Amino acid sequence: MPTPEFIVQLRQHVGTMPLWLSGSTAVVVRGVADDTEVLLVQRADNGEWGPVAGIIDPGEQPHAAAVREVAEEAGVEAVAERLVWLTVTETITYDNGDRTQYIDHVFRCGWVTGDPRPVDGEATRAEFFPVSALPPMTERNVTRIRLALENRPEAHFGSVS
Questions:
Q1: Distance between CA atoms of residues 100 and 61, nearest Å
Q2: Tens digits of residue pLDDT in 9-34
Q3: How many alpha carbons fall within 13 Å on the CB side of residue 124?
Q4: What confidence tens digit (pLDDT) does each residue in 102-152 have?
Q5: Which residues contact 106 (CB under 8 A, 6 or more apart)?
Q6: Radius of gyration of the chain (CA)
């Protein structure tokens, strides 16, 4: 997965010091009631399943980044419906020593069109899963999906139990 050029340039100045970055997560939902499915991708770097997520480009709106990432990673067209969770991730340390923490904008998105498939190399698989048969995931990803499926009119802020 290529690192965005603006981060490469920042890293030339700050090395591996922690960076505070903005990210967007798209929980793409299709179907209704008992036929509800969620789009998941299996990450190429660690094999974990989860919703599509990525870094927001400088000047980009968070909801637009979520929709862009869905198209780039899974070949699916989606529309952002609502912000469901605004939170901060734990510090992530990458294999090269870079440390980053993200303010994560989690959006419930509606599927518009397209059959999921890995597109840009960030995922090895992309597919819709019935809500009743999701693969094993991290607790953070389970929470992202749960909040999107609850579809409350208000967003959650910070930690959610």
A1: 20
A2: 989 999 889 999 999 999 999 998 88
A3: 8
A4: 999 999 999 999 999 999 999 999 999 999 999 999 999 999 999 999 999
A5: 24, 25, 27, 51, 83, 84, 85, 86, 87, 144, 147, 148
A6: 15
Among the listed residues 64, 69, 70, 65, the one whose alpha carbon sits nearest the alpha carbon of residue 112: 70
Q: How far apart are CA 107 and CA 29, in angstroms?
A: 10
The answer to whether the Cα torsion of 12, 17, 21, 24 is positive or negative is positive
Residue with tokens 């923490």: 101
CA atoms within 13 A on the CB side of 67: 17
- Report the distance separating Cα 31 and Cα 147, nearest Å: 17
Task: Report pTM.
Answer: 0.93
Give the three-state DSSP class for 159: coil
